[in-house]
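HUMAN: Forgive my ignorance: could you write out one protein's sequence and C-alpha cells?

ASSISTANT:
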Amino acid sequence: MVRTIGNPLSWGLRQLGTAGDDIGKVSRRIGGTGEIPRVRALSFADLGAALRLGLRDFAALRTDVIAAAMLYPLAGICMVWAAWHGALLHLVFPIASGFALVGPAVAIGFYEMSRRREAGQAANWLDGFRVLASPAFGVMFIGAMMLAAVFFGWLLTAYFVFLVTMGPEIPMSAQDFVRDVLTTPSGWAMIAIGVPLGAVYAAMVLASAIVTFPLLLDRDVGLPAAIVTSLRVTRAAPGPVLAWGAIVAGLLVLGTIPLFLGLAIVLPVLGHASWHLYRLAVRAE
C-alpha cells in the first residue's frame, strides 16, 4: 500500500492520538493490575547470597556491563567538576553521596540483564538499554523522577546546613574548605548536623525503594503497590535491610575512588545483586 504525506493538521492529530495512547498506557501501568506481592523476611545470609549472585552476573557480563557502566563515572565527574568550578565547592560531597539516593533507578539496565540471564536468555549491554522499550519504563521513569526530587531535596538541605554553620561565604579553595570543615567548630557543627540528615534521606529511599524498581520491571503491580512492597520488606526484616543499606553506601564510597571510576564496577555488581535480593525478598507468583 502506497503511503502519502498528509496535511500538517491530520499528521498532528495522528501524533496527538498516539501520544494520548502512550499516556493512557503509562497511567494504567502506574495503577497496575496485579495484587501486592507477598514478601518474606530477609536474613543476613540472604545479603551474602545476593552479592555472590551479583558478582556471578558481573563476571559473566564483565565487558558488556563495564562498557555500559562507564556512563556513571563520566556523569559523576561532570557533576563534581561543575560544582568545583561553579562556586558550589561546598556541595561536592552532597552531590557525590547523592548517588546512593538515585541508585535504585539508575541500575534498571542491570536488573534487566540479570532478569534475562535468570530466564536463560542471552544478555549483553544492549539489553540494559532495551529496558527503555519495556512496558514498565514509563512508570519506572516516574519513580526515578521521585528519587531525583529526593536528591535535589538533599542538596537543598545540605546547602541550608552549610549556610547556618559555615556560610554564607563560599570557600575560595578546596584546601581551605577541607581545613575549615575538619578543624573549626563551625565545620564540626556542619558534620554533626549534615551527616544524620543525610542518613535520614538515605533510610527513606532504602525503605521505599529496596525492591521497587526490580518489581516494576518484573510484574504489573503499579508504582504505589511496588513502594508498599518495599516498605513491607523493610518492616519484615529491618536489621538486614539496614545492613544492606550500609553495604551499598560503603561500596559506593569505594566506587568514587579515584575520580568515580570505581563506579564502573560497583554499580553493576550492586545492580545485579539488587535484582537477586528482590528475588529473595518477594515471593514468586
User: Anything to note?
Assistant: The chain has one domain: 50-281. The longest helix spans residues 137-165. Residues 116 and 123 are 6 Å apart (CA to CA).
